[in-house]
Amino acid sequence: MRHTAGLRNVDLTNTPASSLRFLAISGSLRATSSNSAVLEAARRIGAPELDVEIYHGLDTLPHFNPDLDLDTPPPVIGALRARIGAADGLIISSPEYAHGIPGSLKNALDWLVASVEFPGKPVALISTSPSSAHVVAQLAEVHTTMSARLVADACITVPVRGRGGDPESLVSDPGIAAPLRRALEALAAAR
Hints:
Elements: E1 20-26, H1 34-45, E2 50-55, H2 75-86, E3 89-93, H3 103-112, E4 122-127, H4 133-145, E5 149-150, E6 156-157, H5 167-171, H6 174-190
Parallel strand pairs: 1-2, 1-3, 3-4, 4-5, 4-6
């Protein structure tokens, strides 16, 4: 069993070869975040051969400093990069703050700019509010600049804003669950 800062314990040695692993990152640090809830809902509705692992370590990452981004970066950064390298794809859901990407998420992305694990990785962007167009556009630009592969059919908006952070209510709502399931299928097909 590997133990990695900011992630729940996951046994990578006993995962079936046919399964897919997606790493899900919420751009929100709020305990009752709709972005985190939608990622948890995606984890619950994924097909049996799909493992959606939710990253919980944005608040543990040091501020990006190129002087620290050496052959051996800080351990928590090395762990994040390893998780991204092991993932078959990424799912990112983020709120919009002041028409932009929240600082904690942008900081994580800055740490990934020079990483070898990120380029070519299939990415799904999930928005929880139709009014969050600025963050979606900025995330798309940043990911494209970083050579990720945005999967158009996996980039969706599901209207969960204002419904609180209850993943179970999202899973039981066909208007939320069906688009999430289709996005996961599109991301799986893109790998």
